[in-house]
Task: structure prediction
Amino acid sequence: MNIFRLAGDMTHLLSIIVLLLKIQATKSCAGVSLKTQELYAVVFVTRYLDLFYSFISLYNTVMKIIFLLTAFTIIWYMRKHKVVCQTYDKEQDTFRVLFLIVPCFVLALLVNHEMSVTEVLWTFSIYLEAVAILPQLVLLQRTKNVDNLTGNYIFMLGSYRALYLVNWVYRYFTELGYRQWIVWVSGTVQTCVYLDFFYYYVQAWRNNERMKLPG
Amino acid sequence: DDTKEVKDEL
Result:
């Protein structure tokens, strides 16, 4: 564990906490894409199957359980909570997620470390996470309302993987022979997907104004 | 090929 990876994990955890707080405090999920939340739940389920058969560390196990529990809690709020679910803009959150899931799964079948069920599912989760934010970014473009907390949520969610990129560079130079091409390429694509959002987020922050996305 | 090391990252 290095400081970059720890910072990445904490940023990831914080992003989820911010989203949960937004939903619980404001009793509203306006501007939040349920599709992205469901894609992330799929990412966590397919990636953390090893919870059942391999123990890495207490930290690793606890974090995986927290990510799984919070992901399903957010989905429960957006689908079932009587007040919150009325604030979900269903007609705007229409991204065809199958166009993300199917290509990622096919790619996981073609490019992976080993043709086993858990390895293919794990690889699928790596590819899917790279594009899971797309429904959320599309929803922002459509609804234009980037409220502060949702903006912070997306910013931190993008930042965590950028910190992981630094972690991979660090590990490459400090751990002899350490290589993870699949994760590195996917993580780079994932971070690039956020670049446009980062640009407008930082601009709004520097001008100390509410974030607005172009027409 | 990639380090088939244990998946220690989240």
About this structure: Chain B touches chain A at residues 1-10 (CB under 8 Å).
